[in-house]
Amino acid sequence: MIVPVNVVLALSAVLFGIGAFGFLARRNIILMLISVEVMLNAVNVSLAGFSRHLGDLRGQVLALFVIAVAAAEVGVGLGLVIALNRNKPGAAVGDLTKLKW
Amino acid sequence: MLNAEPDLSGKRFLLTAIFYYMAAASVASALLAVTRRNPVHSMLWVLALFLHVAGIFLLLGAEFLAAVQVIVYAGAILMFYLFVVMLFDLPAEEVRPRFGNHWPFAAAVGLGFACLAWIARVGAGAPSAGTPVAVERVPQGNLRAIGTALFGPFVLPFEIASLLLLAAIVGAVVLARRRAA
Question: Does domain B1-92 have CATH number 3.40.50.150?
């Protein structure tokens, strides 16, 4: 392994933190979903690092499943965004108050 | 792998330098992606992030994962996002504030997660133990080993993933269909 595993894990943690910040701070629903993708990528980096460190292939297989779930999430999430956009144009989550009373 | 060079240390140093470049570039592009005002610029920075993460996968010996990352993430998922961004009224979105009023709390949460890196620093001395499944380190690519694992011990999760993708396709079609008013 060319770098120690803690460097990979630290990179994964920093990427996950950036994604969490983006998800909580952005007010555009598409950019919130993109931040979720950043977080999933961070988890994949960590899984690949562990897979290399432990010499175990299950980490990479799990990362493949994470990618499959991310693809499903994108399909349903963006379908929801399009359906919301039909009711109220725009992508700002502050405008989505239809279920409030 | 290339044929064995006499000075392996030079090659190792080069690979380490490439890894640190990939790490720095992915962190920088992730930061830019979550802070740009224009969503299309954010998408392009996320594309840079995905490609650099694919490079990290290559350096970690996960060649198939790198290929899947480029094809599925950078190819399919990001194109889907870009299509939806193009459908929206961007100029109206750009004048709105980027962050909510509570963005300092969000920054604190992000920093809290990033502090996990500090914990990763200590937990590094863990011995390289584990119970390898079906394969010991194969030096020449790992596609065969991943295929064997996917259709061997992981066949049930694999089928469940395909069922999940089918449900997602049906759900997306149902959600995005225009109702007959």
Answer: no
Q: Which residues of B touch A32 (CB under 8 A)?
A: none
Residue A57 · residue A42 · CB < 8 Å: no
Indicate the fold that domain A5-89 takes in CATH: Helix Hairpins (1.10.287)
* pLDDT tens per residue, range B35-63: 888 888 999 999 999 999 999 999 988 88
Report d(CA B25, CA B54) in Å as an integer: 12
- Domain borders along chain B are 1-92, 141-181
Please, what sign has the CA dihedral across residues B155, A8, B30, B108? Answer: positive
Domain boundaries of chain A, sorted by first residue? 5-89
- Residue from A1, A5, A29, A34 to probe the interface with B (highest B Cβ count within 10 Å): A34
Cα separations (Å) of B76 from A54, A71, B72, B82, B176? Answer: 31, 9, 5, 10, 18
Average pLDDT, chain A: 87
Phi-psi region at B141: left, alpha or beta (left = phi > 0; alpha = psi -120 to 50): left
CB A13 within 8 A of CB B113: yes
* pTM attached to this predicted model: 0.86
Note the ipTM here: 0.91
